[in-house]
Write a structure and sequence with these properties.
This protein is α/β, with parallel strands linked by helices. The protein has helices at 34-37, 46-50, 109-138, 176-188, 204-209, 239-261, and strands spanning 4-7, 13-17, 58-62, 141-149, 164-167, 194-196, 216-224.
Protein backbone atom coordinates (compact mmCIF):
# COMPACT_ATOMS: atom_id res chain seq x y z
CA UNK A 1 0.00 0.00 0.00
CA UNK A 2 1.05 3.59 -0.61
CA UNK A 3 1.36 5.05 2.90
CA UNK A 4 0.30 8.55 1.91
CA UNK A 5 -1.73 10.55 -0.58
CA UNK A 6 -0.55 13.95 -1.80
CA UNK A 7 -2.53 16.59 -3.64
CA UNK A 8 -0.22 19.44 -4.66
CA UNK A 9 -1.65 22.95 -4.65
CA UNK A 10 -0.54 26.54 -5.17
CA UNK A 11 -1.59 27.95 -1.80
CA UNK A 12 0.95 28.79 0.93
CA UNK A 13 -1.20 26.63 3.23
CA UNK A 14 -0.56 22.90 3.55
CA UNK A 15 -3.21 20.70 5.14
CA UNK A 16 -1.76 17.75 7.04
CA UNK A 17 -4.01 14.78 7.82
CA UNK A 18 -2.03 12.15 9.75
CA UNK A 19 -5.04 10.33 11.22
CA UNK A 20 -7.57 10.21 8.37
CA UNK A 21 -6.49 6.81 7.06
CA UNK A 22 -8.25 3.54 7.78
CA UNK A 23 -6.03 0.99 6.01
CA UNK A 24 -4.38 -1.89 7.86
CA UNK A 25 -1.94 -3.89 5.69
CA UNK A 26 -2.97 -7.49 5.01
CA UNK A 27 0.12 -8.84 6.74
CA UNK A 28 -0.72 -6.99 9.97
CA UNK A 29 -4.48 -7.54 10.05
CA UNK A 30 -4.31 -11.00 11.73
CA UNK A 31 -2.63 -9.41 14.78
CA UNK A 32 -5.58 -7.14 15.55
CA UNK A 33 -8.74 -8.10 17.36
CA UNK A 34 -12.18 -7.05 16.13
CA UNK A 35 -11.95 -3.72 17.92
CA UNK A 36 -8.59 -2.99 16.35
CA UNK A 37 -9.87 -3.83 12.89
CA UNK A 38 -12.69 -1.37 13.48
CA UNK A 39 -10.15 1.53 13.64
CA UNK A 40 -12.49 3.45 15.94
CA UNK A 41 -10.05 6.26 16.73
CA UNK A 42 -9.82 7.48 13.14
CA UNK A 43 -10.19 11.20 12.42
CA UNK A 44 -13.28 10.26 10.45
CA UNK A 45 -14.18 12.20 7.29
CA UNK A 46 -11.49 14.80 7.90
CA UNK A 47 -10.68 15.04 4.19
CA UNK A 48 -14.34 15.57 3.30
CA UNK A 49 -14.80 18.14 6.04
CA UNK A 50 -11.97 20.35 4.72
CA UNK A 51 -12.52 19.71 1.03
CA UNK A 52 -13.10 22.92 -0.94
CA UNK A 53 -12.58 25.34 1.94
CA UNK A 54 -9.52 26.80 0.21
CA UNK A 55 -9.22 27.08 -3.57
CA UNK A 56 -6.02 25.10 -4.03
CA UNK A 57 -4.19 23.99 -0.88
CA UNK A 58 -1.68 21.19 -0.76
CA UNK A 59 -3.02 18.18 1.12
CA UNK A 60 -0.87 15.41 2.61
CA UNK A 61 -2.96 12.58 4.04
CA UNK A 62 -1.86 9.32 5.63
CA UNK A 63 -3.59 6.28 4.14
CA UNK A 64 -2.75 3.94 7.03
CA UNK A 65 -4.72 3.77 10.26
CA UNK A 66 -3.26 5.32 13.38
CA UNK A 67 -3.64 1.83 14.89
CA UNK A 68 -0.82 0.73 12.56
CA UNK A 69 1.36 3.65 13.66
CA UNK A 70 0.55 7.16 14.81
CA UNK A 71 2.10 9.66 12.41
CA UNK A 72 1.57 12.46 14.94
CA UNK A 73 3.71 10.84 17.65
CA UNK A 74 7.43 11.03 18.20
CA UNK A 75 8.92 7.99 16.40
CA UNK A 76 11.25 7.50 19.38
CA UNK A 77 8.24 6.73 21.55
CA UNK A 78 8.71 9.74 23.84
CA UNK A 79 5.43 11.00 25.27
CA UNK A 80 4.07 14.31 24.00
CA UNK A 81 2.12 14.76 27.23
CA UNK A 82 4.30 13.52 30.11
CA UNK A 83 2.27 12.54 33.14
CA UNK A 84 -1.02 12.39 31.26
CA UNK A 85 -2.85 9.42 29.80
CA UNK A 86 -2.18 9.08 26.10
CA UNK A 87 -1.52 6.50 23.40
CA UNK A 88 1.90 5.68 21.97
CA UNK A 89 3.61 5.63 18.61
CA UNK A 90 2.15 2.19 17.94
CA UNK A 91 -0.99 2.21 20.08
CA UNK A 92 -1.95 -1.04 21.78
CA UNK A 93 -5.27 0.27 23.09
CA UNK A 94 -8.07 2.56 21.98
CA UNK A 95 -8.52 6.00 23.46
CA UNK A 96 -10.72 4.26 26.02
CA UNK A 97 -7.78 2.07 27.13
CA UNK A 98 -9.24 -1.11 25.60
CA UNK A 99 -6.82 -3.54 23.83
CA UNK A 100 -6.82 -3.56 20.01
CA UNK A 101 -4.52 -6.59 19.56
CA UNK A 102 -5.09 -10.26 20.07
CA UNK A 103 -3.37 -11.43 23.24
CA UNK A 104 0.38 -11.73 22.72
CA UNK A 105 0.29 -10.08 19.27
CA UNK A 106 1.28 -6.57 20.32
CA UNK A 107 4.20 -5.12 18.32
CA UNK A 108 7.68 -5.40 19.81
CA UNK A 109 10.60 -3.04 19.31
CA UNK A 110 11.64 -4.54 15.96
CA UNK A 111 8.10 -4.40 14.61
CA UNK A 112 7.67 -0.81 15.73
CA UNK A 113 10.94 0.15 14.04
CA UNK A 114 9.76 -1.56 10.86
CA UNK A 115 6.49 0.38 10.90
CA UNK A 116 8.35 3.64 11.46
CA UNK A 117 10.40 2.89 8.34
CA UNK A 118 7.46 1.79 6.20
CA UNK A 119 4.79 4.28 7.24
CA UNK A 120 5.82 7.05 9.62
CA UNK A 121 8.99 8.12 7.81
CA UNK A 122 7.49 8.14 4.27
CA UNK A 123 4.53 10.22 5.43
CA UNK A 124 6.76 12.81 7.02
CA UNK A 125 9.16 12.81 4.10
CA UNK A 126 6.24 13.66 1.83
CA UNK A 127 4.98 16.34 4.20
CA UNK A 128 8.42 17.92 4.57
CA UNK A 129 8.90 17.89 0.79
CA UNK A 130 5.61 19.69 0.22
CA UNK A 131 6.31 22.28 2.90
CA UNK A 132 9.68 23.05 1.35
CA UNK A 133 8.12 23.27 -2.13
CA UNK A 134 5.47 25.68 -0.88
CA UNK A 135 8.03 27.78 0.99
CA UNK A 136 10.20 27.99 -2.12
CA UNK A 137 7.20 29.32 -4.05
CA UNK A 138 5.84 31.79 -1.50
CA UNK A 139 8.77 32.47 0.81
CA UNK A 140 6.69 31.07 3.65
CA UNK A 141 4.66 27.93 4.38
CA UNK A 142 1.88 27.38 6.90
CA UNK A 143 1.04 23.86 8.02
CA UNK A 144 -2.49 23.51 9.32
CA UNK A 145 -2.70 20.05 10.86
CA UNK A 146 -6.25 18.71 10.65
CA UNK A 147 -7.49 16.48 13.47
CA UNK A 148 -10.73 15.42 15.07
CA UNK A 149 -11.70 13.38 18.10
CA UNK A 150 -14.71 12.17 20.03
CA UNK A 151 -15.86 14.83 22.44
CA UNK A 152 -15.97 12.63 25.55
CA UNK A 153 -13.10 10.25 26.34
CA UNK A 154 -12.70 9.90 30.08
CA UNK A 155 -9.37 8.06 29.84
CA UNK A 156 -7.75 11.05 28.12
CA UNK A 157 -9.51 14.07 29.58
CA UNK A 158 -12.20 15.10 32.04
CA UNK A 159 -15.56 16.26 30.81
CA UNK A 160 -16.40 17.29 27.27
CA UNK A 161 -13.80 18.76 24.96
CA UNK A 162 -14.47 22.11 23.32
CA UNK A 163 -15.33 21.93 19.63
CA UNK A 164 -12.25 23.91 18.56
CA UNK A 165 -8.98 22.88 20.20
CA UNK A 166 -6.11 25.02 18.90
CA UNK A 167 -2.53 23.90 19.44
CA UNK A 168 0.62 25.96 18.91
CA UNK A 169 2.77 24.48 21.70
CA UNK A 170 2.34 27.59 23.80
CA UNK A 171 2.66 29.95 20.85
CA UNK A 172 6.09 28.87 19.63
CA UNK A 173 5.16 27.02 16.42
CA UNK A 174 3.79 29.95 14.42
CA UNK A 175 3.73 33.70 14.06
CA UNK A 176 1.37 35.20 16.68
CA UNK A 177 -0.79 36.50 13.83
CA UNK A 178 -1.60 32.94 12.75
CA UNK A 179 -2.64 31.96 16.26
CA UNK A 180 -4.64 35.17 16.67
CA UNK A 181 -6.44 34.72 13.35
CA UNK A 182 -7.58 31.23 14.27
CA UNK A 183 -8.53 32.16 17.83
CA UNK A 184 -10.51 35.20 16.64
CA UNK A 185 -12.68 33.06 14.37
CA UNK A 186 -13.21 30.36 16.98
CA UNK A 187 -14.07 32.86 19.72
CA UNK A 188 -16.70 34.49 17.51
CA UNK A 189 -18.23 31.22 16.25
CA UNK A 190 -21.63 31.24 17.89
CA UNK A 191 -22.69 27.96 19.44
CA UNK A 192 -19.16 26.53 19.57
CA UNK A 193 -16.63 26.62 22.38
CA UNK A 194 -12.85 26.61 22.01
CA UNK A 195 -9.56 26.23 23.86
CA UNK A 196 -6.11 27.53 22.97
CA UNK A 197 -3.29 25.21 24.04
CA UNK A 198 -5.56 23.34 26.41
CA UNK A 199 -5.58 19.54 26.51
CA UNK A 200 -4.15 19.54 22.99
CA UNK A 201 -1.13 21.79 22.53
CA UNK A 202 -0.06 20.38 19.17
CA UNK A 203 1.39 16.99 18.40
CA UNK A 204 4.77 15.91 17.07
CA UNK A 205 3.95 17.24 13.61
CA UNK A 206 3.19 20.75 14.79
CA UNK A 207 6.21 20.84 17.05
CA UNK A 208 8.55 19.43 14.40
CA UNK A 209 7.59 21.72 11.52
CA UNK A 210 6.68 24.85 13.44
CA UNK A 211 9.81 26.91 12.79
CA UNK A 212 8.74 30.56 12.50
CA UNK A 213 12.34 31.73 12.43
CA UNK A 214 12.71 29.67 9.25
CA UNK A 215 9.46 30.97 7.70
CA UNK A 216 7.69 27.69 8.48
CA UNK A 217 4.58 28.02 10.62
CA UNK A 218 2.44 25.24 12.06
CA UNK A 219 -0.84 25.09 13.95
CA UNK A 220 -3.01 22.14 14.94
CA UNK A 221 -6.78 22.03 15.08
CA UNK A 222 -8.34 19.19 17.07
CA UNK A 223 -12.03 19.39 16.28
CA UNK A 224 -14.69 17.83 18.46
CA UNK A 225 -16.41 15.33 16.17
CA UNK A 226 -19.84 16.27 17.45
CA UNK A 227 -19.52 19.36 15.25
CA UNK A 228 -19.85 17.40 12.00
CA UNK A 229 -20.62 13.68 12.52
CA UNK A 230 -22.09 10.97 14.70
CA UNK A 231 -19.58 10.00 17.38
CA UNK A 232 -20.58 6.35 17.33
CA UNK A 233 -20.50 3.52 14.75
CA UNK A 234 -20.95 3.64 11.84
CA UNK A 235 -19.51 7.16 12.29
CA UNK A 236 -21.86 8.87 9.85
CA UNK A 237 -20.92 12.21 8.33
CA UNK A 238 -23.68 14.72 9.10
CA UNK A 239 -24.17 17.37 6.45
CA UNK A 240 -26.65 19.17 8.70
CA UNK A 241 -23.87 19.63 11.26
CA UNK A 242 -20.91 20.02 8.93
CA UNK A 243 -22.60 22.75 6.92
CA UNK A 244 -22.68 24.89 10.06
CA UNK A 245 -19.05 24.46 11.11
CA UNK A 246 -17.43 24.51 7.66
CA UNK A 247 -17.92 28.29 7.18
CA UNK A 248 -15.90 28.93 10.33
CA UNK A 249 -13.13 26.60 9.17
CA UNK A 250 -13.16 28.32 5.78
CA UNK A 251 -12.93 31.71 7.46
CA UNK A 252 -9.91 30.83 9.59
CA UNK A 253 -8.10 29.09 6.74
CA UNK A 254 -8.73 32.05 4.44
CA UNK A 255 -7.33 34.42 7.05
CA UNK A 256 -4.21 32.30 7.46
CA UNK A 257 -3.73 32.13 3.70
CA UNK A 258 -4.15 35.88 3.33
CA UNK A 259 -1.56 36.58 6.03
CA UNK A 260 0.93 34.45 4.11
CA UNK A 261 0.11 35.86 0.67
CA UNK A 262 0.26 39.45 1.92
CA UNK A 263 3.68 38.90 3.48
CA UNK A 264 2.47 39.56 7.02
CA UNK A 265 4.20 36.55 8.56
CA UNK A 266 7.63 37.40 9.83
CA UNK A 267 10.30 35.27 11.41
CA UNK A 268 9.90 34.76 15.14
CA UNK A 269 11.58 37.38 17.30
CA UNK A 270 14.14 35.83 19.62
CA UNK A 271 14.59 37.14 23.15
Amino acid sequence: MNPFIVKEGDSPVVLGMPHGGTEIPDELAPCFNCLGLGVSDTDWWIDKLYDGLLDNPTVVRAAFSRFVIDANRDPSGASLYPGQNTTGTCPTTTFDDVPIYKEGQEPGEDEIADRVEKFHTPYHSALAEQLERVKAKHGVAVLYDCHSIRSNISFLFEGQLPVFNIGTNGGVTCDPKVEAAVETVCAAAGGYDYALNGRFTGGWTTRRYGQPDNNMHAIQMELGQRAYMDEFPPWNYRNDLADNVRPHLKDLLTRIERLAIDGQLTSAQKD
